[in-house]
Amino acid sequence: MPHRPSLREVAALYLKAGNLTFGGGDPTVASLQRELVDRRGWITAEQYSIAFSVARIVPGTNVLAFCAASAYQMQGWVGAVLSVLAASAPSAVLAVWILTALDAAQRNPLANAAAGAVLASVVGMMFASAWQLMKPALADAKWFRVVVFSGGALILREWLRLSPVEVLFAAGLCGAFWREGTAR
Amino acid sequence: MSLWLLYLLLSKATMTGFSGLGSLPSIREDFVERHHVLTDYQLNAAVAAGRTGPGPLGLYVVCVGYTVAGTPGALIGFLAMITPTMLVIPVLRFFLRTAEHPALRGSIRGLLLAAAGLLISASLPLGRSSLTSALPVAVAGVSFCILALTKVETVWVVAGAAVLGLGAGMAGFK
Lengths: 184, 174
Known about the structure:
The structure holds two protein chains of two kinds. The longest helix of chain A has about 40 residues, at about 60-100. Chain A contains eight helices and no strands. Chain A has a domain at about 5-120. Chain A is mainly alpha-helical. Chain B has two domains: about 5-85, no CATH class; about 130-170. By secondary structure, chain B is mainly alpha-helical. In chain B, helix 3 crosses helix 4. Chain B is about 75% helix and about 0% strand. Chain B is flat, with a radius of gyration of 20 Å. At the A-B interface, helix 1, helix 2, helix 3, helix 4 and helix 5 of A face helix 1, helix 3, helix 4, helix 5 and helix 6 of B.
């Protein structure tokens, strides 16, 4: 069983991941995946994928639903509420502050240079997260499954323009019938 | 516009949107076209502010609240943003209760790999807008290697990139 973190540890992680990751919600989910599953081992990859999927199914801001769903599995309702507040309250204050200073911020070349490099790093981070999700299946020589599900999801999303919810629905449905080799 | 109506309209938008800016059409219709408490310019500024800082794109809802009704409006916007996220818990509990079923286990394995594909897909627009010269490509490549191969804390990699970008900007290097 994974180590069960304290409420404080949970809140501190979501505070960092939610408010120091730029580029929207997906990079935050990618950073949380690396911290929760790979570095700290607080939840398993399967618990992560359940949280990722249900967060896409429900309406609202996906990343906050992901915070609630992943923290709930470690610390119940209190953890869920706390993680959402920790991940969003400071950046909400910052967003309002940016709104009042928007013109100046957009014209500052140094701020733009820093933001550009952060976004580039976030692209690398998202690829690293995708890699971490695929690695266990690749290590098990389940590469065909990786090609079908990960490659298929990319194609459905990018070229056929299906929504993430539709892509996940298709993957869940195919997965339910693809049960050969019950080892992970 | 009363704070109560503000909450209802913003919640209607966040409850019916399924992604970062999915709530935008509904907000535009209610606030710009129907109630005239927001101009298109102000709405664009709210979206830009939500996108500029850290955190989810959905944060622009807080900025919309602030523009319409000041600080109380921002609080209302924040509430409207976080309330629908709690709907996830009942759905999650259902999944967890049935997680041992073999068909659902197969589904979860499929979802996990599909999530990897979706992450790559979500990184493409970011990549198109940010990987425009050698320096950002190198930053992305080095970040990937550090994050995929080492256990360095994620925040340090992002902070390092910010410092590097700042240094490059000061040196006039693109």
